[in-house]
């Protein structure tokens, strides 16, 4: 049975004085929550402060980044694409990880014991498994969406319909809930009947799994999606390389008296090489960060299920937080590296600053009307944009007089648009 929010808040409030006392002058906390006698080593106290600050920054970064992703897609019409619904689902999963899982994990790790009761221990572990699984499965769905978009851009609309996208997202969350809440609520995941462990007089809420559940959940939650992701991104990169080679083969020199065919091919190959190199770096970052964050944890998760003493508690905590770190890095990798998302983030932030400045000026005495104030604060960038557009139109009149090198680079970039889209993953 899930505890009420008031009882949970009461448990948190009751444990805060104990945590403060433990941080100031104690070495341990008993099972009944009473602080034991002793003097906490200053080095240990400093380490706790540093670790707590660092983990809090990770949580804050994850929450802020994923909220920005949701706001950007909601407020920017250019980002309201079917494929970006997977990014919204990923951001929601990572937001749950950072707000519901990581917050209690940092308190549990710093205090050294579980203070929120046995029932909430099972709920917390279930949310941990469900949200982490949903995050990984959403990453797999994003890789499939990107692959179909690049591989078959003309047939992409036939495959990725609104019903297909929403059905895939619902299936991801249903499978994640099925892998977490059902076995954990029935106690199938742990080798002992009680929710909490008693270690050195302290109650511990640990992810101690049976070998059967550890192998099954790891296969469905990570290893199978990981194989699919690596295979799709590898094929995506190979397809991009092949596409670049085909373009290089059919590209012919322009009829220009000042440009030799050899120089033309050299310039075209240079531009294609840059696009190819950028696509390789982008795909390498996506796959590399995902593997670095999750492979160590899921390997240790299976090893710990068969050998309880092979992996130390501190090592397992570190690997767990390494996996949590992926929830903070996902908004950066899948959004900030994208030009459209960067522009949307900038508009969201500047719109907030604009409204704040407008409110402050409205409170100040002035002869200007509200409409004048709004145009002064918020429409000045629009006027600048119009002026810039006029300048661009003026520059376009001289487009025929630009160098042939710029013409060649533009033609090559347009012709390899499908390859360049990889860089906006």
TrEMBL record:
CDD domains: 7tmA_Ap5-HTB1-like. It comes from the Eukaryota. It comes from Ixodes scapularis (Black-legged tick). Coiled coil: none annotated. This is Dopamine D1/beta receptor, putative. One of its GO terms (molecular function) is neurotransmitter receptor activity. One of its GO terms (cellular component) is plasma membrane. Keywords: Cell membrane, G-protein coupled receptor, Membrane, Receptor, Transducer, Transferase, Transmembrane, Transmembrane helix. The keyword Ribosomal protein does not apply. PROSITE patterns: G_PROTEIN_RECEP_F1_1, G_PROTEIN_RECEP_F1_2. It is a multi-pass membrane protein. SUPFAM superfamilies: Family A G protein-coupled receptor-like.
